[in-house]
Amino acid sequence: MTVAVVQFGGSNCDRDAVRALSNLGIDARRVWHEDGLPADASGIVLPGGFSYGDYLRAGAMAARSPIMAEVREAAADGAPVLGVCNGAQIGCESGLTDGAFTTNRSARFQCEHATLRVENADTPWTRAYDEGEVISLPIAHGEGRFEIAPDRYERLEAEDRILFRYCDADGEVTEAANPNGSTGNVAGVLGERDTVAVLMPHPERATLPDLRAGTDGQGILSGFRVAD
Amino acid sequence: MTAYTATVTVRLKRGVLDPEAETTKRALERLGFELRGLRSVDRFEIDLDAADGGAAEERASEMAERLLANPTIHDYEVEVAEAE
Known about the structure:
The structure holds 2 protein chains of 2 kinds. Chain A is an alpha/beta fold. Chain A has one domain (2-224): Rossmann fold, CATH 3.40.50.880. Chain A has helices at residues 14-23, 60-63, 66-76, 86-93, 150-158, 218-221, and strands at 2-7, 28-32, 41-46, 81-84, 100-102, 110-118, 134-141, 145-147, 162-166, 186-190, 196-199. Chain A has a 9-stranded mixed β-sheet, sandwiched between helices. In chain A, strands 5-8 form a two-stranded antiparallel ribbon. In chain A, a hairpin with a 5-residue loop joins strand 10 (186-190) and strand 11 (196-199). Chain A is globular and about 45 Å long. Chain B is α+β, with helices and mostly antiparallel strands. Chain B has 2 helices and 3 strands; from the N terminus they run βαβαβ. Chain B has helices spanning 19-30, 53-68, and strands spanning 2-12, 41-50, 74-82. The radius of gyration of chain B is 16 Å and the shape is elongated. The A-B interface holds A 56-57, 60, 64, 92-93, 98-100, 102-107, 145, 147-149, 181 and B 16-20, 22-23, 66-68, 70, 72-73.
């Protein structure tokens, strides 16, 4: 039983994800996308990076690679799947989650700390937090603006599938606290099942205490414990 | 079979923010140009062989649906012409 961290050409957070998960006592290893999912995969991480050089659109190419058909199948069977940053873009491009992550309002790559409000604490990924809790995670993306049609956004809200929203230090969801112009300040969403989640911020960069970036990301990665 | 070139134009849906186009517009204004707006689009020129123009258009449309456009944020149009 191991969490498969899927490495595409251009992924660059795959090692970090393995290290962060291992640090939490969760067995994880990198899997080259062409090798397919291992039979003993108990969960899947789609890591950050710049798969396929962000050609066409961030995540577009990786989303159409053969391993993603296996990932969608595993997700439908209930395997936990977490997409982070480029992995979130891949998740949306492949239809694991609704919406799209596209060019930041600033048109710039932004690398900074963001504060997030936990919108739904009743999921494997947020069980460690309270609803409304404010956590801090690093973001590092040029295409993190969440876009979605208004009716589909309403559906996400109605079904409680918004996981995190960018907020200020007091937990207020304001325009000023929205780093990239995301619809509804959305930073992360759930798929059809709550075992599938994507988010732009990096929990694996806020998990190892030695990095001094906080450890608020541990709770998210602990979502893999359930299946472990 | 006839040789065709299908031109697929992919653009952001109306109302979806285009920060790159906004930045480009501001740069043009800095250069002293007057303009009311600017939109950027992606255009793909695809050479293919098909039984007729309808079949070529259908195939190019499926390419747009499945890869070239993201239906969440994009509209697209397809034009087909016999290759020169």
